[in-house]
Design brief:
By secondary structure, this protein is mainly α. The protein is built from 5 helices and 3 strands.
């Protein structure tokens, strides 16, 4: 699958996840984001999703959750007061464009 298509699906899955959130915090793993995007268990898609989440955390749109176990899998979290959450709630299409622009850097 082409990288642009994969990134677009991951962004759409993230936006849908935030729009459908019931609580005040959303936690995400790369594997769960890939499943939500409908990409199954493809290992290359999981790695690309992990890089995608890592880029978003680098630009401080999402946070790395503190982990007590010694698992290699990172869990990322977004709180309801965060900029990305507010942007998705106000204008999902603009949020998609902004995220795609950020990860293409």
């Amino acid at each position: 699958m082409r990288l642009e298509i994969l990134e677009k699906k991951l962004v759409e899955a993230l936006v849908v996840l935030l729009l459908n959130a019931k609580g005040k915090v959303v936690s995400i793993k790369a594997t769960s984001l890939v499943k939500i995007a409908g990409l199954g268990h493809d290992h290359s898609a999981i790695l690309k999703a992990a890089r995608f989440l890592q880029k978003l955390s680098k630009y401080q749109f999402i946070r790395v959750a503190a982990s007590t176990n010694r698992n290699k899998t990172y869990r990322y979290m977004i709180k309801d007061g965060d900029e990305l959450w507010q942007l998705v709630r106000r204008d999902p299409e603009r949020a998609k464009e902004l995220i795609l622009k950020i990860i293409s850097k």
